[in-house]
Write the structure tokens for this entry.
Amino acid sequence: MKALHLPLLTACLALSPLRAQTPPEDLAKRVDALSRELERVKGELEARPASGTVLGGYGEIQFSHFTKDGAKDTADLRRFVLALTHRFDDRTELVTELEVEHAVSSSDDKGEVEIEQAYIQHRLSPTWSLRGGLFLVPAGLLNEHHEPTAYYGVERNAVETAIIPSTWREGGLQVVGAFDNGILLQAGVSTGFDFSKWDAASTEGAESPLGAVHQELSGAKSHDLAAFAALNWRGLPGLLLGGSWFHAKGAQGQPAMPPMAATLWDVHARWTPGPFDLSALYARGTVADTAAFNQTRVGSPTLVPSRFEGWYGQAAWHLWSSGSYALAPFVRYESVNTAAAFEPLAPASLTPEAAPAERIWTAGLTFNLNPHVVLKADLRRFRNDTAQNRVNLGLGWAF
Amino acid sequence: MSARIRNVRLLAGAGLALGLACGSAGSPGPGGGLSPAASLGEQIFKDTSLSASGLQSCATCHVAEAGHGSDNDLPAQLGGAALNLQGTRQSPTIRYLATNTGFHYDAEGTPTGGFFWDGRAETLADQAAGPFLNPLEMAMPSKAAVVAKLAAAPYAAAFRAAFGDAIFTDVEQAYRCMTLALQHYQREDRDFQPFSSKFDAFLRGGVRLTDAEARGMALFNDPQKGNCASCHPSSGPRPLFTDFTYDALGVPRNPALSANADPAYFDLGLGARPEIARPDLYGAFKVPTLRNVALRKALFHNGRFTSLTDAVTFYVQRDTHPEKWYPTAPDGTVMKFDDLPAKYHGNVNVKEVPYNRLPGQAPALTDAEVDDVVAFLKTLTDGYTR
């Protein structure tokens, strides 16, 4: 169990934005502090009973003031998630998350009730585990670690919302290899995309191309499965380097549908030297055979792009802490383009023009009441769609 | 209970009642061919003896070669015992209606579904029941008279075999079974939903559209240009080019329609149905499928246009050049929407593209673009062969 959880624990510590609540003066002190914390958590883990049920959860409430149009201001309980984990024995556990979005879910409201995760994980050896069921796709920095206490800003970043459609889950089988050298390898097969869901008359596909066609194991068409892999390395304290790849055809055996093979990959890095927390990510998606599909929908507002991509760089500074309180300002710059290229159509005049990349500055503050409860405030400025400029206030929790 | 659910339950109940009354004659025939009821429906559909004139059948006004619509440019077809009385509306195509629903208001209050131009029939069978007794159409004096003709038809024995030896002794039952047979025919015979146009071949990936057709499709779909797809959806593997809703277009009055000789006569569409208590819907007619529209020789509910190019041009120039489409009063003002009483002019759609324009503004489509849209619409004609 120690060998299995050590890299995972290191990952969790590295991903916690306010991990450095007591900024060390030098690297040695910092490593000491980390080691002590690690030993404590390891001890807790080893003390866990072989079986048992653990209730967790997270949630977030947001207020947004749109600086160009106050009529768009909203206050929303964006999500409320209950997480239930049950250990059948020391090798097998069930992991689930049940989510309610927007406080009310009914036929007359926009809310949704969703199963965000529901999988069985079984440990084959100290290094290797199998995961089967509905799980989060290992992509980017945020998709698998999406609790409001795990990221800066009231809202998740645009790249990992529009390009990587977080929170993105599929049903399938996954092998997880957690090595002592800090490498975490994940790979498997899962359900993929259904491009027949693409509604060219709506803007959904322009907001998130893959978000418009992923299936989330809700009666998912499964003629064409996906293959995926992710590799993350945390071999040095405070450093994370990784990347992911996901590939699937989207025709699902439906007549008159071209194969529509979609590929998404990303590379990402996170480095936490001293009180600083620096991260960067680049994600790129491509879809093949879009011309045959788009040709039957020419003139519609949202055709399928052949390429979409985005990147961001983010810097946070753990400025102050006292007891359980901690304050960290951050700044993030993003470039995101959900329609960076289109395959040529006939006649050529019908080929849509590529969209300009949207560039977004976000600056804000994160204030922790304790490691599990966070207050956030930020300012987001959009270079193109300035109507989206807004001030956000947020309250989040995770336990 | 929502109106939608209520309607579905009513329809289910009606279907069940009909099924029980008319036996299992609707089961598919041997080899997957037409069921006995559908085969009877085909014969009934083509039987001219079931009209007062003895010269008119369902197929007279719903001609298969014309997309199961009328095959001439009359504003409405002639009927009656002497075939000298004109109806008040174009014979709508009855093709591609198998997936239509009964009339209901959707969650936003939009009237949807129903059969006929005003949606007054709940099912294909209900729709089939009407023309036999309409004095301006087949003009039979009563259901009993129709059933008597059925009993004397060459297929009477097959009718008895399908629905029971005593079927002709119960007029109501026999009449219901006749309409059910017509419904079976329209649902089962592939001629009513062949999906055999060039556009279908294009969707299947076997054919390319010409540049003009492809440009026309883009204009058809473009919400800022034709915006046709907002009511005539073109997406999906087998689009029907109608959303089965209703719209008030302000189609000009057609002086060639006999009923319009009376200046006090107005066809209010949904408003012609006494039970429709929504004056804001008066003047709205059903959005027809555009499949086979190029075969139509008279278009819109009153047959006002006899050219597809004129019909498309009307859409985009109704508001920018109203003088082209409506008469001018002695004082020089253009009498827009002259086929509706003035108090309902506010019901006419003036908000959506391409109607959202004013005199002097450029139409949403140029003449060349109208030609492209027409080229595209011609790809919707069934029976395409390379």
